[in-house]
Amino acid sequence: MPFRIVDLLDVPDLRLSVVAARDRLDRPIEAAHVSELLRPGAWLQGGELLMTIGLLLPMDRGACRAYVHDVDAGGASCLGLGLGHELPYQEAPAPLVEAAQETGLPLLTVPHEVPFIAITKAVFAARAAEQRLALERAYEAQRRLTAAAASGRGLTAILEAWAQATGVGAAVTDPLGRIIASVGRGTEAALEAGGDLIQRVAVRGLLGSGTSIVHSAHVEVQPLGAQRLRGLLMLTGEMDPATRLLASGLVSLLSLELERRHLADEPGRRRRSALLGRLLTEGTTAEQVRDLLAAAGLATDAVRGIAIEPTADADDVVADLALAVPGGLARVTGGVVEAVVGGDLDVLEALNRFAPGFPTGIGPSVPPESAASSLRQARGLLGISRIAGRPVEAQANRSGQLLLELGNRSVLSGYADAVLGALDDADPSGDLVATLATWLDTAGSWDETSRRLGVHRHTVRNRLDKVMRVTGRRLDDGDDRFDLWLAIRGRHAAQHTPSSPGAAPQQPMPPT
Question: Which of 73, 101, 193, 449 would be 20's cystine partner, CB 3.0–4.6 Å?
Fold first, then answer.
């Protein structure tokens, strides 16, 4: 409890009296200060007992009102007037009492035999006792937290000890923001509403923290872990300095618990790695594959393979993926991290969090029995990912475009101009090239091309007849059609391809 005016009045040696605003005696006193200035408010910080003998204060209503308003605006908790036979006043003057009562600022009188320094000492002694008591409570709470951490009952026991000591709600999530343990009313609702804050902190790893207001409550998020992000702590509620000091110990204990869980899960990671090996073994039937996925806790109708070339410790990447993705099917083989994940997982988000900047191939979404095929495709994309400088995803209808995007821009543009240049000269509007591109994309469908372009079917036929006349190529010839398709695709790819291999892209590439 803070030291209040009523507590100061209870100090018998001071013999203080209240002469105004008796209903405001629960105000806390942070310090005691003496001033004879007529405008002392600018020199106050808030929470002070301001003492004066009224040496310079004219005792008329206007002057007293201005003085009391200035003291109150400066944040003083109360005003003390010293009385004495050799002092200006032997009792509190009526104008000052009226002004204090009107403003709601408690006015105390100090008898002549009590020096101001005695009151100052009493206030600071009480403040020191208050701080000592708060520190003792913090130490006791820290001992309870440590005992809970040593009890072997996990995260929930630690959080319960925290809530009992502080009344502040708390929750621990994994690095993707999924809740692991929580205590306190409204904590889970705050977690749901504060998801953006959790994500912002998680992206920065162990270097970040954040605060926000969620549902009118103060929310703070801290990272957990020793050398790598293992989880996140959300605290919901206002914290005084002692509680904030205790929060630092809470972060340390929770980090230790998460590291312990990480080490304890090593046999489980080895088991899941072995499961992945069996999943990829040739000759495994569809039924066996589904049983293996079920054993890993991954019940899904579609999976996809991921291959990563980590520049950091591959075992750490495997451990992070095993924690982050449902099923946790990940392993290291030949220096490459392989994982099989559910087809509905946001793979790019997980990679951005746990394997940023690493060459990565992402296989297509396939039935569980084809997981090995998806993973083979993912490994095949690692070389392309090294050149592209980003994760590369396998999609059946994008393979040719992907290869084109890796080519030299000037070569692609030169080839496209050589094949399509005559069409550009004959039709600067670009209608011929656009009609040809649409016709090729629709597998030579006149009706679909007409529908997509919004023109008559005869217009499409007339334009394509002109294409053949201008280019000298036949659309019923496979080689000619391939050259025209490659030129159109190459021109598009040149707009998104670096001028030389390995250079930074001039503008973002389309999704692959």
Answer: 101
C-alpha 396/C-alpha 35 separation (Å) is 83
Give the position of tokens 């392993």.
Answer: 331
Closest CA to 493 of 481, 506, 503: 506
Distance from chain centroid for Cα 149: 26
| Per-residue pLDDT tens over the stretch 181-213 | 888 876 777 777 777 888 888 878 888 888 888
In terms of Cα–Cα distance, which of 348, 339, 341, 334 is closest to 366?
341
Among the listed residues 135, 170, 354, the one whose alpha carbon sits nearest the alpha carbon of residue 257: 170
Q: What is the pLDDT of residues 89-145, one digit of tens each?
A: 999 999 999 999 999 999 999 999 999 999 999 999 998 998 888 788 888 888 988
Q: Is the dihedral of CA 502, 506, 508, 511 positive or negative?
A: negative
DSSP label at residue 23: G
- Contact between 308 and 354 under an 8 Å Cβ cutoff? The reply is no
Give the up-direction half-sphere exposure of residue 43: CA atoms within 13 A in the CB hemisphere: 11
Neighbours of 73 (CB within 10 A): 13
Beta bridge partners of 4: 28
What is the distance between the terminal CA atoms of the chain, rounded to a whole angstrom? Answer: 62
Q: Which class for 397: exposed (0-12), middle (13-18), buried (19 or more C-beta within 10 A)?
A: exposed
Residue pair 97/20 in contact by the 8 Å Cβ criterion: yes
From the list 109, 85, 112, 113, the residue with the least C-alpha distance to 8 is 109
Element containing residue 80 per DSSP (H, E): strand 78-82
Residues 261-265: contacts with CB within 8 Å, 24+ apart?
Answer: 261/154, 261/230, 262/230, 262/319, 262/323, 265/319, 265/322, 265/323
d(CA 451, CA 461): 13
